[in-house]
């Protein structure tokens, strides 16, 4: 039986269970995808803990995971832009961590053959979020841009995308991530008390734009440093948006298959790296969320539903219709 991560009550990672579920059937305009990998994201924990129960209630048994990559396994009526066996990148809130998912064909993006499933899957979530945040602050050549939590999932991609626009990028991180940020062409500055002073030293000419992916006072720091509100974007601090009128562009504002395709093309060309810190089998989903909820992940933690060594055989099985 196909597996799917489910939870039947609000709580911590311990409420996550692997259920056996029927294989879903694609309807008209839909595609059945055999999921190869599905990343974990810290925001998913909030929904599972019931923090957002008033606005986004769970419907038990609720699924978990948003982004995924895998193979087209069956086509619904009227789908003619995919073929069985095609490698695709997708986004399905609260559903992605499952052996099979059904997605509207219109929101699936072809995966370039030369990028890994691990690099591809996060593009539809943290990749698109980073794209939105960078686009919101319009970095230009000559600008100095700060990215908070620059070693994290959104931050590591946002820092690279801002560099691709010609900006000099300063990233905040702990000391253990300083060399990692340098490897991305980003100047590291330690987060925590005294951040504004350290940023003044790192950027004596001033800071033009600020991409906040962590909250907890980063927008206040940006305002203190004289960054214009229209060139500050936060995806993690609604209070600061209300107080300062800064921008809050995020995944849901720009998601489209063309943005995912552009990101995948950048990875394919070697211009963008998706750092993967850990790949865990689906059975370790609780551990994966325990790790991501510590908020010190470098890049992404990804759940593997089909182990790498079995992927060629799985692709052949799907293509042969077995
Ligand atoms: N609305 C949307 O579209 C959307 C989409 C995706 C994410 N989000 C939100 O965006 C935020 C970032 O998500 P993510 O997946 O990038 O997170 P993440 O990968 O879990 O971020 C981890 C990073 O945070 C850094 N960090 C820890 N403490 C910090 C501090 N005090 N100051 C600055 N950085 C610190 C860590 O660096 P060190 O280990 O070096 O400390 C680590 O690299 C989350 O709040 C998430 O919910 C929103």
Automatic annotation (TrEMBL):
Keywords: Oxidoreductase. CDD domains: MDR_like_2. InterPro entries: ADH-like_N, Chloroplast_QOR, ER, GroES-like_sf, NAD(P)-bd_dom_sf. Residues 11-303 form the Enoyl reductase (ER) domain. SMART domains: PKS_ER. The lineage of its organism: Bacteria, Bacillati, Actinomycetota, Actinomycetes, Kitasatosporales. It is an enzyme of class 1 (oxidoreductase). It comes from Streptomyces griseoloalbus. The keyword GTP-binding does not apply. It holds the Pfam family ADH_N. This is NADP-dependent oxidoreductase. Its EC number is 1.-.-.-. One of its GO terms (molecular function) is oxidoreductase activity. It comes from the Bacteria.
């Amino acid at each position: 039986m196909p597996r799917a991560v489910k939870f039947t009550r609000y709580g911590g990672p311990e409420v996550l269970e692997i259920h056996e579920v029927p294989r879903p059937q694609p309807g008209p305009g839909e595609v059945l995808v055999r999921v190869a990998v599905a990343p974990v994201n810290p925001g998913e924990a909030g929904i599972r803990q019931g923090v957002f129960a008033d606005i986004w209630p769970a419907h038990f048994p609720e699924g978990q995971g948003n982004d995924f990559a895998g193979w087209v396994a069956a086509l619904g009526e009227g789908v003619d832009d995919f073929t069985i066996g095609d490698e695709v990148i997708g986004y399905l809130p609260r559903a992605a961590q499952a052996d099979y998912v059904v997605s509207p064909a219109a929101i699936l993006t072809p995966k370039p053959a030369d990028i890994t499933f691990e690099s591809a899957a996060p593009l539809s979530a943290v990749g698109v979020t980073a794209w939105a945040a960078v686009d919101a602050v319009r970095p230009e050549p000559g600008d100095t841009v700060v990215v908070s939590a620059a070693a994290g999932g959104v931050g590591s991609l946002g820092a690279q995308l801002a560099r691709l626009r010609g900006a000099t990028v300063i990233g905040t991180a702990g000391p253990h991530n300083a060399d990692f940020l340098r490897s991305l062409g980003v100047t590291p500055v330690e987060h925590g008390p005294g951040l504004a002073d350290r940023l003044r030293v790192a950027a004596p000419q001033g800071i033009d734009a600020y991409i906040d992916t962590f909250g907890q006072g980063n927008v206040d720091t940006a305002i203190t440093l004289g960054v214009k509100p229209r060139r500050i974007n936060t995806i993690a601090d609604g209070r600061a948006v209300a107080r300062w009128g800064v921008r809050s562009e995020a995944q849901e504002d720009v998601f489209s298959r063309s943005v995912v395709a552009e990101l995948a093309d950048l990875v394919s060309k070697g211009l963008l790296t998706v750092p993967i810190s850990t790949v865990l089998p689906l059975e370790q989903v609780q551990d994966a969320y325990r790790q991501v909820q510590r908020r010190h992940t470098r890049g992404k933690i990804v759940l593997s539903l089909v182990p790498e060594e079995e992927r060629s055989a799985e692709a052949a099985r799907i293509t042969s219709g077995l």
